[in-house]
Structures are given as structure tokens and as C-alpha cells.
Amino acid sequence: MKVAIIGCGWVGTYLATRMLAEGHDIRGTRTRPENAEQLRQLGLRADVIDFDRCVPPEGWRGEIFDAVIVSVPIRRADSLDAATTRFTHLVKFLESISFTQLLFFGSVGIYPHISAMISEDTLGDEMLEPRLLRGEQMLRARFPGLTCLRLGGLFGQNRIFARYFEGKVCETGYQTANFVHVEDVYRVVGLLMDRRIQGKTYNVVCPEHPLKKEVIIASANRYGFRLPSSFADGDRTAKVVSSQRLVTDMGYSFVHPSPLLF
């Protein structure tokens, strides 16, 4: 298959490397020349496109892909206007190429910080994070066949949760974890591409939701990191994002069902 990964950062690079090994033809984009060069060294065709400025290389126009994976982030520091500008440029770029299937990596951060079991349809749009919702809506308005994957916190390879808290006070240890291993993201994407799924929204999150404190302790013990200096007994929000729709619709079984096993 011929696949484009737009915004080929950490998770995109993982997918691209696995797909290349399977014999797929992969083309990617990064926002900086040095990062695009890293992709080329892995064997990808790669170009620099910054969707905040968006002067895409002419070599993309008219290109035909079996699937396009969009992993262009909306960051916490972005204003709604900045997110709108970025996705306006992104939509215009996608209009210049052709593809059979479009997948978008969203985030479970779109859901509010509340104690509740949350599926894809639990909350109305007025409850969702406006910038993340804007990105999804702009893509789906132009490309109704968009499949949106709302990813949990991403871990795997060198991304180890305990690493970020060594010797520090952990303020979020008593919150529930909504995490996912990058290998499961890769396998879900492969399944969706094989079945040519269109127009769906799926939460991609481990089915088990231990406390973040438990995940930190487990990963510290497994990989030899120091524990936090303390766990502040503060926020105990039990936000649980459900991936049951993905399991039911696709018959998917998580390789890493619990972040305690990452």
C-alpha cells in the first residue's frame, strides 16, 4: 500500500518504520528540515511542511495514496485561532492529493476532566475541548469518510511514565490512567486499513485504568527509575475513557491491555 503520514512525529515514525518493514511505500512530513532528514535516513520519502505557514512542496500535488494518516497536533498552548489556521492549511493541502482512506490521530484530551465513564458519544459537543473539537470538525466537514482515533496517553519504547517523575512531587498520582501503548496504535491502524473503515470515531485506550501512581511504581520497578519524592494526595478524578466500541466493532484485543504492563 501507498501511505502518507502527515505530521510524522514519534508515533508516526514508529508506524512508518513498521510499515516500511512490511513493504509499504511510505511518504511523510515534518515541520523541520533536520527531522525530515531523519525520516529519509529511515528510508521514507519525506518533506518539510509547517501547517502554521503552509507552503507545501509542489511534488505532493496530485499524488495518489491508499491511505493518509494525519498526526498534526493541537497543543495546550495553541489558541482556537491558531488551531483553526493550522487545520485550514491542512485541509487545503489534503485537497491537493487523492486518497481512499483518511485517518486522524486525535486525543482523549478532548473529553473534560470529570469523574465518569466516557465513550465516544457520552458527551455533547458543548462539553468537549473546543480546539481539539475544531480540528476534528474541520476535517470531517470536508472529508466525511474521516475516521478519527482519539488516542490515550502514548507510551512504549523509550517513553516510560516513571521517567518523568524521578525525584519529583507527583501531583496526579491518584487520577486514573487513560494510556495506550504505541504498538496497539500500530495494530489498530493496520486493522482499520485492512478493512478500509470509513467515517468512524474510536477511543484507542487500554481497557484497564489503574491509578497513575500504580503505573509509575510499576514502570519504575521494571526499568530502574527512581520513584517520585512523594505523591500529593490531591486530585482523585476518576476519568475513564472506554475503548469498548473499538473492541465490539473491530473485535480488537489489546496487546498491552494495562499500562501496568508497559
Task: Explain what the structure shows.
Helices cover 32% and strands 22% of the residues. It has 7 helices and 13 strands. Strands 3-2-1-4-5-7-11 form a 7-stranded parallel β-sheet, sandwiched between helices. The chain has a two-stranded parallel sheet with strand order 6-13. Helix 1 links the parallel strand 1 and strand 2.
Note poorly predicted spans. none
User: What is the strand content?
Assistant: 15-25%
Q: List the strand order in the largest sheet.
A: 3-2-1-4-5-7-11
Overall tally of structural domains: 1
Please give the CATH architecture.
3-Layer(aba) Sandwich
| CATH homologous superfamily title | NAD(P)-binding Rossmann-like Domain
Helix segment count?
7
Following the backbone from N to C, one meets helices and strands in this order, namely: EHEHEEHEEHEEEEHEHEEH
- Rg over CA atoms: 19 Å
